[in-house]
Design a protein that fits this description.
Layout (H helix, E strand, L loop, with lengths): L3 H19 L3 E12 L4 E10 L2 E6 L7 E6 L4 E4 L1 E6 L28 E11 L3 H9 L5 E7 L19 H10 L4 E6 L8 H13 L3 E3 L10 H8 L5 E2 L18 H9 L2 E2 L10 H9 L23 H10 L4 H6 L3 H6 L16 E14 L5 E15 L2 E5 L27
Parallel strand pairs: 1-4, 1-5, 6-7, 7-8, 8-9, 9-10, 10-11, 11-12
Antiparallel strand pairs: 1-2, 2-3, 5-13, 13-14, 14-15
Length: 427
Amino acid sequence: MIPSTLRVAALLLFAAAAARAAEPKYDLLLRGGHLIDPKNGVDAVRDVAVAGGKIAAVAPRIDPADAFKTIDVSGLYVTPGLIDIHVHVFAGTGEKGSYAGDNSVYPDGFTLRAGVTTVADAGCAGWRNFEEFKTRIIDRAKTRVLAFLNIVGNGMRGGPWEQDLTDMAAVPAGVMALKYPGLIVGIKTAHYAGPEWTPVEHAVEAGTIANIPVMVDFGASKPERPVAELVTKKLRPGDIYTHVYSGLRGELDPSGRVNPGLFEGRKRGVIFDVGHGGGSFAWRIAVPAVKEGFVPDSISTDLHIGSMNAGMKDMTNVMSKFLALGQPLAEVVRWSTWNPAREIKQEGLGHLSVGAGADVAVLRLEEGRYGFVDSFGARQRGTQKLSCELTLRDGKVVYDLNGLARPDWDTLPRDYKSTGDPRWEGR
């Protein structure tokens, strides 16, 4: 006869195994949405299941009984979490008139509500103040914050700092980038007003040391350093020219056609990024360029205090501008997910492959009459507009515009206090 203690232990083990078997396989199921996943070539209605913060299954139909929580996203588009590779988020230092200060915004207030789960700060910090930026912002944000390190050691502090050639040292910038691989994803040069190539040359040297790309905001237009020479001779394949539709640096030639150097740069492998911002996107440049076939490689916002309440607004608004230019939604999603992930060498992001981190945007494509304003106050009319309904970060709901993940109040107990669960909620 089996001793009673052994029988009890066996029964407990059996009960535990039965309980585990009865538990749903998935923490969360997004059901019935139209999935656009450019990396995997998916553009069709698919269910997406999440478990343990990862994509667990993608299929035409997944049984809701297998999920702890099911969210009906039919009629909506499901995409990888959006990746914005040009933002300014080194906030909180209190420095007036500085992008390492008051000109920047805290990321979480402006990203998740637009479906953006990953950003790359575009040069607010240099090697001298990067670790303060890491402690103050990167380590505290729900948004995944990566960084282009400014070639200026003091970072994007404006005025004399950004014009100081003696502070544009390649070796310490490269060494700092090597110290934080995968966090510092590039080198940035910006706003230089002089005629020298020094900022670009030193940025490329630092990028070569750390094997990361360079992003160039070309500063003032100077005849001594034309944009065609920048993209055909000075930059390497994989380096990024941002503000491509600004019209401030000869992106169009005098006849109104795309500068031939940009096409040649693209053939060499140079990347062309939107970087909308408060002063770097003009319809008079974008419309003829796109008609000529010069579309962007990546869409980015150049988010800061001067752009968020002006023509730029947010990532979905900038994406919508390219729908107004006649570009297919699937390509607009590609330019906002998989392309930028590859540009910053973060190929674990920007897709919803099984096993990938569950960063997801659920977008609504609205039909109506809309107006989209450029950086200079000019309007382009459009009939489609993207808005964000739901955002997942690491499998947790971190933004929910219309309560898709929530129960109706009158279905709950009278004294209800919380309607979430840590398996799917990311407050």
